């Protein structure tokens, strides 16, 4: 079975989404709604990462780090510094649109991964795996809807001003 590989990909994608949400929170901390809500949404992905790491053991994925998406390594610091410099050179409002778009795209990818996993779990009648997908996938959909809603709310004002 290739479910272990699907779990590994989902784990990686959720960790990236958590990291992206934390990044947008820090980068746009003057906007209190973005700052606080993005942090809350990142916690969901961080919990998903822990959930996936736990169930991954049943599918030969003992190496999945339950704390992925919460750590910042030296490469992350360099990437964030580069993003900060880009943000200074361009409009912070345009940067917000770019960041929200990135969150939306990552959440959409994670959503597809959850859907694939749920279909496989249903097909092989693995109730624990299906229950996990049914529990965590709706939160990913809410993350995606949040980013999409913020894009719709902000786009006109930012792009025509």
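Sequence proposed for the structure above (161 residues):
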């Amino acid at each position: 079975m290739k479910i272990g590989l699907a779990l590994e990909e989902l784990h990686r994608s959720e960790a990236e989404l958590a990291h992206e949400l934390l990044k947008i929170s820090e980068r746009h901390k003057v906007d209190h709604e973005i700052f606080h809500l993005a942090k809350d949404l990142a916690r969901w992905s961080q919990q998903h990462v822990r959930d996936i790491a736990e169930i991954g053991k049943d599918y030969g994925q003992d190496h999945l780090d339950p704390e992925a998406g919460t750590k910042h390594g030296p490469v992350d610091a360099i990437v964030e510094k580069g993003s900060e410099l880009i943000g200074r050179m361009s409009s912070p409002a345009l940067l917000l649109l770019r960041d929200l778009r990135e969150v939306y795209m990552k959440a959409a990818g994670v959503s597809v991964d959850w859907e694939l996993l749920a279909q496989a779990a249903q097909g092989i009648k693995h109730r624990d795996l299906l229950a996990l997908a049914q529990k965590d996938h709706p939160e990913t959909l809410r993350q995606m809807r949040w980013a999409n809603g913020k894009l719709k709310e902000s786009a006109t004002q930012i792009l025509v001003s």
